[in-house]
């Protein structure tokens, strides 16, 4: 999948200058030590409580964006912006980081080969923290909680939370959930990652044996390449604007209460906007084992209380035994493109799965929407629709897919979905990151068919784009001459809309793009067979 968001966040959160590393050992550490590997500090909870991190906080309180200013907190403490707290194995406690607005990113990192375990982690009114490689669970501490395991909280009195990264963590209520009784599911499962803040990155985490997986209330946040496995509520809740939900695996829903469970659910109740949201390349599976305990219906992407404005839902693979495969109630200028949405048991109620765009619950009609290039059971769309295929049942599945019983919806050679999509709206790559098209045309559904010869390695040219990010101009250079006298170059924004892109050719291997008139943001440069992310800054 695309990597430009990681590039953006790395650039955005980067901290220049030298940095120090401090070691925390909850078994052998001591606050009177120097924090070196040979003389480590104790647990993270104790280090935070001892005030060993110099940071900032908003004052005066209550927080007012017009009058509250950042003032130094814990002046002269050894840990500074840009430093790393390296956690060794052991129990690091219930960690509360309250009003720690760092001047630059501070990293809390699991040491290589170690497994630090936190009972809970609460970052309230804090900013510029990177959490990497930790295990967060109360079960090793001998209890279960009905609160959030990892909570990023903007607080009305204390101030906002923002610019926080959560990477490579394991967040779990406990182990062995397949053998939990109903009462154990109800008393043990808790919420995984709950974020109320802006500019938050949630990436490459395992959230398992949980009630709600990942909840986001805020703007400009990313949930990318996470695994939410064994859950009893919703997999991901995106509640905000300018959100990206990409490349996540959401599977194995346990039906233990009256909640209508969704792989991804959003709603707009008037307290925040849900606009400019991209849901791309996710896999949502009701189950991967039909013998799973407490098996019940799961809705795929459910958005029932609009309006939802400027949403892009593309390249998702959804296998759920419910009508609501993808449903938007009250959609404005939304695009549902190249998804595969199929019911594993299409003859069983509730089902088969559909793609639906319809009126809001208050009767306001959906407007300006399109649904194209999708594979699904049924389709009911208020808006433009074309190049979709509907499959009634298992016999048709057998003609289209490699192994639908194992939820492998890659296309079979010769199936009617190949080369039949509308190329003008198709994403440049498929669910696997394969460039479209691979044959004579773009394929319908989330996957592009790869002929056996296409799987063989080829000697392709290497493309370099610099500077990136850019301001006034950038240069594209190949390591060999372009094949054509005048290469084809175009530019699109994140919604696939064409953007003017003046460029000149300076030699046989180099193009220069004029970016002065581009608005700041992220674009895709399409050059012959390549698709290259470009970041424009002011």
Care to describe what's here?
The protein is mainly beta and 538 residues long. Among the domains are: 252-452, no CATH class; 463-536, Sandwich (Immunoglobulin-like), CATH 2.60.40. The protein has four helices and 48 strands. The longest helix has 10 residues, at 4-13. It is globular, with a radius of gyration of 25 Å. The protein starts with a helix and ends with a strand. Residues 1-17 and 453-459 have low confidence and may be disordered.
Distinctive features:
mainly beta; 538 residues; Immunoglobulin-like; 16-stranded parallel β-sheet
How far apart the termini lie comes to: 27 Å
Number of helices: 4
What percent of residues adopt helix (DSSP H or I)?
under 10%
Strand content: 35-45%
Strand tally is 48
Q: Which ranges are low-confidence, i.e. pLDDT below 50, for 5 or more consecutive residues?
A: 1-17, 453-459
Outline of this structure?
This protein has 538 residues and is mainly β. Among the domains are: 252-452, no CATH class; 463-536, Immunoglobulin-like.
Give the secondary structure arrangement, pairings included.
Layout: H1 4-13, E1 21-24, H2 44-49, E2 55-59, E3 69-73, E4 84-87, E5 90-98, E6 101-110, E7 116-124, E8 127-132, E9 135-136, E10 148-153, E11 162-167, E12 170-172, H3 182-188, E13 191-196, E14 198-203, E15 206-210, E16 214-217, E17 222-224, E18 227-231, E19 236-239, E20 243-246, E21 249-253, E22 262-266, E23 277-280, E24 283-285, E25 299-303, E26 308-309, E27 312-314, E28 317-319, E29 324-329, E30 331-332, E31 335-337, E32 340-342, E33 354-358, E34 370-372, E35 375-376, E36 378-381, E37 384-386, E38 389-390, H4 394-400, E39 401-403, E40 408-411, E41 463-466, E42 473-478, E43 489-493, E44 498-499, E45 503-507, E46 510-514, E47 521-527, E48 530-536
Parallel strand pairs: 1-4, 4-6, 5-7, 6-8, 7-9, 7-10, 8-11, 9-12, 10-13, 11-14, 12-15, 13-16, 14-17, 15-18, 16-19, 17-20, 18-21, 20-23, 21-24, 22-25, 23-27, 24-28, 25-29, 26-30, 27-31, 28-32, 29-33, 31-34, 32-35, 33-36, 34-37, 35-38
Antiparallel strand pairs: 2-3, 39-40, 41-42, 42-46, 43-44, 43-47, 45-46, 47-48
């Amino acid at each position: 999948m695309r990597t430009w968001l990681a590039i953006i966040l790395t650039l955005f959160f980067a901290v220049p200058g030298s940095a120090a590393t401090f070691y925390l050992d909850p078994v052998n550490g001591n606050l009177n030590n120097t924090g070196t590997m040979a003389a480590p500090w104790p647990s993270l909870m104790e280090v935070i409580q001892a005030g060993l991190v110099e940071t900032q906080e908003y004052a005066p309180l209550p927080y007012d964006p017009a009058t509250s200013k950042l003032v130094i907190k814990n002046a002269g403490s050894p840990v500074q912006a840009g430093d790393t707290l390296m956690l060794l194995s052991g129990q690091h406690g219930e960690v509360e980081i309250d009003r720690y607005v760092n001047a630059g990113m501070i990293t809390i990192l699991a040491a290589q080969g170690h497994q630090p375990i936190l009972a809970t982690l609460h970052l309230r009114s804090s900013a510029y923290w990177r959490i990497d490689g930790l295990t967060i669970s109360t079960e090793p501490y001998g209890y279960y909680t009905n609160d959030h395991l990892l909570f990023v909280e903007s607080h009305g009195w204390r101030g906002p939370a923002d610019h926080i990264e959560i990477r490579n963590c394991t967040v779990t209520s406990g182990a062995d959930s397949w053998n939990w009784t109903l009462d154990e599911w109800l008393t043990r499962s808790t919420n995984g990652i709950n974020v109320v803040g802006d500019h938050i990155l949630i990436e490459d985490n395992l959230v398992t044996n949980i009630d709600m997986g990942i909840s986001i209330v805020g703007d400009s946040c990313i949930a990318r390449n996470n695994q939410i496995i064994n859950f009893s509520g919703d997999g991901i809740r995106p509640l905000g604007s300018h959100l990206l939900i990409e490349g996540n695996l959401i599977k194995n829903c346990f039906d233990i209460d009256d909640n209508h469970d969704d792989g991804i659910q959003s709603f707009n109740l008037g307290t925040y906007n849900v606009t400019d949201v991209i849901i791309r390349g996710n896999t949502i599976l009701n189950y991967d084992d039909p013998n799973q305990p407490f098996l019940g219906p799961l809705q795929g992407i459910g958005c029932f209380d609009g309006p939802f404005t400027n949403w892009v839902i593309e390249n998702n693979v959804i296998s759920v035994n419910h009508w609501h495969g993808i449903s938007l109630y009250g959609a404005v200028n939304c695009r549902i493109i190249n998804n595969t949405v199929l019911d594993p048991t299409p003859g069983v109620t509730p089902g088969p799965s559909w793609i639906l765009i319809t009126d809001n619950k208050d009767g306001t009609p959906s407007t300006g929407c399109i649904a194209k290039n999708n594979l699904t059971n049924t389709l009911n769309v208020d808006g433009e629709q074309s190049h979709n295929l509907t499959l009634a049942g298992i016999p048709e599945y057998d003609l289209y897919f490699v192994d639908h019983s194992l939820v492998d919806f890659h296309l079979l050679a010769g199936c009617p979905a190949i080369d039949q999509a509308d190329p003008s709206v198709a994403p440049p790559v498929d669910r696997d990151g394969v460039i479209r098209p691979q044959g004579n045309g773009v394929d319908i559904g989330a996957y592009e068919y790869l002929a056996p010869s296409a799987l063989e390695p080829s000697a392709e040219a290497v493309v370099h784009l610099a500077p990136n990010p850019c301001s006034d101009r950038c240069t594209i250079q190949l390591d060999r001459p372009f094949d054509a006298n005048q290469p084809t170059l175009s530019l699109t924004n994140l919604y696939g809309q064409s953007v003017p892109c003046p460029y000149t050719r300076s030699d046989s291997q180099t193009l220069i793009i004029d970016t002065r008139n581009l608005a700041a943001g992220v674009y895709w440069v399409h050059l012959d067979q390549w698709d290259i992310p470009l970041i424009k800054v002011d």
